[in-house]
Amino acid sequence: MVIGFIIGLPIWYYSTPEEQQRVTQDTATMRIVEHHIGMMDVAPEVEQDVKAILSQPAPESSQPIRDAWVERVSQRIVIFGNSEHEAKEIARWVWVYSQRHEIRPELILALITVESRFDPFAVSNVGALGLMQVMPFWKDSIGAPNDNLFDVATNIRYGCAILKHYLTKYRTETRALAAYNGSLGYKKYPNKIFSQIKNYE
Predict the structure, then answer these.
(1) pLDDT tens for residues 98-138?
(2) Burial class of residue 110, CB neighbours in 10 A (0-12, 13-18, 19+)
(3) What is the CATH number of domain 42-200?
(4) I need a surface site. Which of 1, 88, 117, 122 has the fewest CB within 10 A?
(5) What pLDDT, in 10s, does the model give residues 59-85?
(6) Which pTM was predicted?
């Protein structure tokens, strides 16, 4: 099962043997994590809402403004050890989904900073994966079983849709962030996110 999944990865994106080995090892880790934690159920109304958010069309935006923003933000992402190419890819997808879902891009970047420090292959001790630390059970609810949460675009797409659901439901960034973290009613996690926002403004 793991071998078949690895063969299907878009290896063309990973340009060095070291990166290819990393993808192979971390993809195997993802399959092991999913096997052990199993799949959790998402409430039908939540599933329906997040699916509707995912289907929203992208608004038109100025390419020069986008490109300038990506260039500026990517220089802050490389500090975490990402290549310039990877940093720009992360920044571009953050821009796309921040515009699509009307979320402050600085908020998404701050969340990624806290969750994974911009490591696309991060795995938490509870099985959350990738940049925005998305739990694999979301794939059964709003995506497809073979979606790769270590893929930058896929992970940010999932994470931003889930965050938008909570922003709409709870109406404040503090409560939405706490819900995203599974700590609704507590401010420790939101405050960690807010403390990072200034680095991207």
Answers:
(1) 999 999 999 999 999 999 999 999 999 999 999 999 999 99
(2) buried
(3) 1.10.530
(4) 1
(5) 777 789 999 999 999 999 999 999 999
(6) 0.78
In terms of Cβ atoms closer than 10 Å to its own Cβ (0-12, 13-18, 19+), residue 162 is: buried
Closest CA to 112 of 158, 49, 63, 169: 158
Vertex 181 angle, CA 175 and 184, to 5°: 40
Nearest to 150 by CA among 182, 125, 128: 128
Report pLDDT for 3.
36
Cα dist from 190 to 94, 114, 121, 180, whole Å:
19, 10, 23, 10
Q: Report the 10 Å Cβ neighbour count for 91.
A: 25
Domain ranges for the chain = 42-200
Cβ(126)–Cβ(120) below 8 Å = no
Q: What local confidence, expressed as pLDDT, does residue 29 receive?
A: 44
